[in-house]
Every structure is written in C-alpha cells, then in structure tokens.
Amino acid sequence: MQTRDSFLNGTLDGISIDSLGILQLADRVERLAEIGEPFLLSAAAHPEGWVLGTGNAGTVLLAKRNGELVVLHSAPEPEIFAVWADEDGTVFAGSSPGGKVYRIAGGEVTVFFEPGETYIWGLARAADGELLVATGTEGKLYKVDGEGNGSLFYDSEDTHLRVLKVLPDGDTLVGTAGEGLILEIDSRGAAQTIYDAAHPEVVSLTTDADGGCYAAVLASEASLVDLSKVAVPAQPQATQEGSGEAQQDGTSVTVKVTEGPAAGTAPVGTRPKGFEGPRSEILHISPAGVVESAARFEDETVYSLLWHRNRLWIGTGLDGKVFSLRDGKPVLEKDVDERQVVVLLPDQPGPAFATTNAAALYRISSETERRGLYTSPALDAGQIARFGGLRWRGELPRGTRLEFSFRSGLSSEPDQTWSEWTGGSEGTEVSMSIVPSGRYVQWRAELVAADGRSPSLSEVMLSYKQVNLPPKIKSLTVLDPGEILVPANFNPSSQVFEPAHPNRQGIFTT
C-alpha cells in the first residue's frame, strides 16, 4: 500500500492522510457535544458558541463553547434547515415545511417573517443590514427589514434557492437546486448566471482570500433532502440509520441518507437522464469568472465548504470525513464515527463542524494528537497463506514510535473467527511469523508523537507465501499407438522432438 486512495480504504483514528498519501498524526479534534436529535440540519456561529437547527423535532439549540446545550425554541414545524445569529446574539431560524422565520432574542420567540413558501433553505444578512431569506419550492429570495416586513427581492425560474453567500462588495451569490445554477445578485436585485453546473444541486458556497469562490455541487440522489418541486407523499427509500418525515397541508419533506453511485439516477430538473458525473464536485470560480474543477469525489457526498486558515475545508458523507484542499488535492484531516459532516463553522483555530446521523458538534484544535491508530482493510492473499513480514517507509523523528500489529482469518470481513491482534512490534522490518495462516490479513499501525512531532508512513509492504495445493487434472487424453503430441509450430522435417513437461499450456505428456 503506497497511494492515498489505498490508505483511505482503511480506518483512521487520530490520523490524517496528506495529498501525497502520507499517514501522520492529525490535528486534535475535541467532541464538544452530542445532540439528542436524529438529524442536525443547520448551524451558524454565535457570540457564545454555535446555534444549531435540528430535525425532526424542529429544535433550535445554542451550543456553548464549554459543551453546554441550551434549547432556544421548539418549532411546530419539524425541520430547521436555516439559522443565523447576529453579533448581539439575536437568532433567526427558518422552519420547514410551511416555512416561517422565527426571531429569538432575550428569551422571547416571535414569528418574524412568514413568506408563504414550503421551505426556507438559507438566511443571511445583506450588505444593507436586511435579512435575506432563500426559499423553495418557488425559488424566491426575500429581503426582510428590522420590523419583519418582507419584500420579494428576486424570483428565480429554478425551484429551490439552496444556499446564500454575501460578498464583500455587497452582491449575493445564490446556489440553486433543480438546474444547478450559481447566480450573482446585485443590490438592486438584478441577477446574472455565473455558472450552470452539470450537477443539479449547489449545496455550499464559500469565498477565498483572493476574491474567488468555491461551490460544491451534487448529483441528484446525493441530496440530504427530497428536492422535488411537486411535493408528494414520501415513498420508501433505502436509508442508513432511518429517515424522518413530516407532512403539512399536503406537502412533505423527507430527510434521507442515500448510498450508491451517481450514474443512471433520475435527475432533478433538466439534467440529462444519462448523467454519469461524480457524486460530488467542487468548483473554483475566479474573480474573472473562470470556472475550474478543484476536486471530484466519486463516492463521497460533499455537504459543506469553508475557507479557513488559508485553505479550503470540505465536510463529507457517507463516512463522516473532513478534508482540506492542499496543493490542489484533498487531504483527509479527520474521520469521525457519525455518517455526515453537514456544516463547517469558523473557529479559532478551528474549524468547528457539525455532524448528522448521529448529531454531534466537534472543534479542531491547534495541537496534534499524541497518538493515533490506522487499521488497514482486509488484504486478500488469494488462498490460505503463511505470512512472512512487513516492511515500511516513512519517517521516525527522535522519541516518536511506530508499532505494528496483525491479525488474520478466512472470512473476507473480519469477525470473531479471526485471530486476536498480535502485540505491537517496532522496527523497519517486522516479522509476521506468529500470525496464524489465513487467506486474509490486516495490519494496524500505532503512531505516537514526541515533542509535538509525528512519525509518518508512506508505504507498507507485506510478504506471504501461499500454501501449496495438490495438482488438479483437468482432462486426460490417450493417443493411438505411434501418435505423439507436438506443438502446432513443430517442423516435421526435424526428426527429433524433445517435449518439455509441462509445456506452456500446462500439458504433461508421457
């Protein structure tokens, strides 16, 4: 194993993988809070910590920096897809379906704005101080003044305005779902299309220090929610950890977690039915409007982007991973137990991130993990084999440690029939003579830091020898007396033929 993709197939605990496929100890991640809700759908920075929107109970929470959770509001609507917090601590929460914007301040909760739309997908402060409210299923963007008086700011031809990003110059970027458009809307409400993506949904937007923009786009079946324009009763779907559903006035919203490839799925909007793009893609849009692909994820679903600490951070599912983009390649920073990293949030040093399925809140610190474990996938020897040894390449700074242990078995998935893990062994060449014979084997590396320095691992090689099996006779043919078996290119003028046993086709002759 020596490539980034091969190492990513293993299990990481406190380990990161850089763009060159090198394993090393990751930045320490602190789990701030476990949230007793089935889904966490939105989050935003708050002066005291972070404000969180959940489903399917429609709860708005304040997660303080010490991990304390405070319930700010429980809405009658089941989903909170959008939250916003002002610098003075005033919180706004958008509920769905039957969308309302709630204002939470000083312990009082009021209905601040009711647009009459099914979904409220995004909330943000415009440059003039008014509140922007992005909605679906009619694709309308509203501006709401301080008194809660709203006016239609932009009416899109697309079905859902999925995400908002207010730019430093006062314009607003909007990502849609249905047609996968990235729009730029000026202070007068005039819009221009920046990019029309092949993927049908724009799920996240962020801007970098140079004025460029990153956008995450998704294949239709990768969305966390059903974005169909015409709401119908929810149909049974293949889910992971279950799904939540709520109905109101004949509409429905279904929170789902899907798995499988993007190819061949029925798309939202006008995407071609044969669309076979990656499940997720990250696009970079320069200040001049030039669009380039920054990263493609064939199997991961990108849910959130954040420009922080001078690089792009990426939150994904279906395996709960946080990446950062370095030298144009995704670097795995953290792999958590929860299934989806749905929101990335600024923090110092950070970032912080929120997960769903199950719901939790994490924060990345400036310190490096003191120890970490990497467990390889089960490696197949093809048949029962005896294992010889392991060799590795990497770096081992003074005082750090790198220990290897092993286990083997006869089933492709490790289970209780496998052998126990061997004790940890050090050295550039590690003997595997005590590992029981088996068809499958796993290795595990424990990395231990010293003085803030981490060992690293760039290549691992295992040696094994398959157990000899008895020969198998596939056919037996008896020739007539005087006949011999000769190769097709045998020259009859040569009176001498010396057969080799076996020949290149594995045939013996006597």
Radius of gyration: 29 Å
- Say what oligomer this is: single chain
Strand residue content: over 45%
CATH class of the largest domain: Mainly Beta
Percentage of residues assigned to helices: under 10%
Structural class comes to: mainly beta
Task: Using the 3D structure, state the CATH architecture of the largest domain.
Answer: 7 Propeller
Descriptive tags:
510 residues, 39 strands, Methylamine Dehydrogenase, Chain H, mainly beta, Jelly Rolls, 1% helix, 1 helix, 2 domains, nine-stranded antiparallel sheet
Give an overview of the whole structure.
By secondary structure, the protein is mainly β. It is 1% helix and 50% strand. It has one helix at 4-8, and strands spanning 11-13, 15-17, 23-25, 27-34, 39-46, 49-55, 59-64, 69-74, 79-85, 91-96, 101-105, 108-113, 119-125, 131-136, 140-144, 150-155, 160-166, 172-177, 181-185, 191-196, 201-207, 213-218, 244-248, 251-255, 280-285, 291-297, 301-308, 311-317, 321-326, 329-335, 340-345, 352-356, 360-368, 371-375, 379-395, 401-409, 429-431, 438-448, 456-466. The two termini are 45 Å apart. The model is unreliable at 229-251 and 257-271 (pLDDT under 50).
